[in-house]
């Protein structure tokens, strides 16, 4: 779905600022809601109900996109899809952490992220091929329902035979200063990243090419997720990697052209970091509550960066994008450095 929506919004007359707003606010809502969904999962215990509801809402959002014909209808469904992720992710991540066992959190999240990307690659490849063959966006959304429904079935099988049933902590989990300190670093990191939807928007006149760009990012996330997961289990200083890549991403976005594809790889490294290293670190600091707080701060950074960089793209001020991204990236690096050496 996300491989098609930026181009579809472009076709409906949206500006780059609006696309940045939709994906920025969507991601921010999806992450900010975890302030509530994380503690809720811990208090209620069990975690599986939230996971099932989250995946079900995502399938419903994709179904709605097949009928959406207005930019605000599309935006609302993107927001619903992001909320579905907020509902399921803290609970699902607690299940993954429990499945990984003590001392292997990085590996567990790395394996999960890599397998997740296998599905993403298949989906984006399907979308790219359909757009190349001149299928409408609505046809892609309809086709995407099939793997979504199969995913729900497989989730049920995992619940029945996997025997991974984390127990809630009854009363919630206290959040210490370290969680908010690390969350602040993730906010600044989110502020420094240029969402791939903006790179796709720049290629939207050729819809299949924009989807191909997204496909490159999805492919790159598999080795990045696995590598970061294994490295993190061996060295805490893996936390310092991502801020350096966001500066290079900003430069590639400013350069444009074929360098947008290099930027897609850089984007993949940073998002893999957020999905693997940051989550493993947050899991160490607490349970679903800590995961929710850290992810929410990352999402708030994405909201600001999406709107800000979308506006700068509309007016053609790419130097401002590089300056803002580099400044917030360096600030994030300083905070993470203090966390690592403390």
UniProtKB/TrEMBL annotation:
UniProt GO molecular function: transmembrane transporter activity
* One Pfam family linked to the record: MFS_1
Q: Where in the cell is it found?
A: Cell membrane
As for membrane topology, the entry says:
Multi-pass membrane protein
Instruction: Name the domain of life this protein comes from.
Output: Archaea
Q: What is its main location?
A: membrane
SUPFAM superfamilies given in the database record: MFS general substrate transporter
Keywords from UniProt, A to Z, are: Cell membrane, Membrane, Transmembrane, Transmembrane helix
Residues spanning the membrane: 12-33, 45-68, 139-159, 179-200, 212-232, 244-270, 291-312, 318-340
* CDD domains for the chain: MFS_MJ1317_like
GO annotation, cellular component aspect:
plasma membrane
- Protein name, per record: Major facilitator superfamily MFS_1
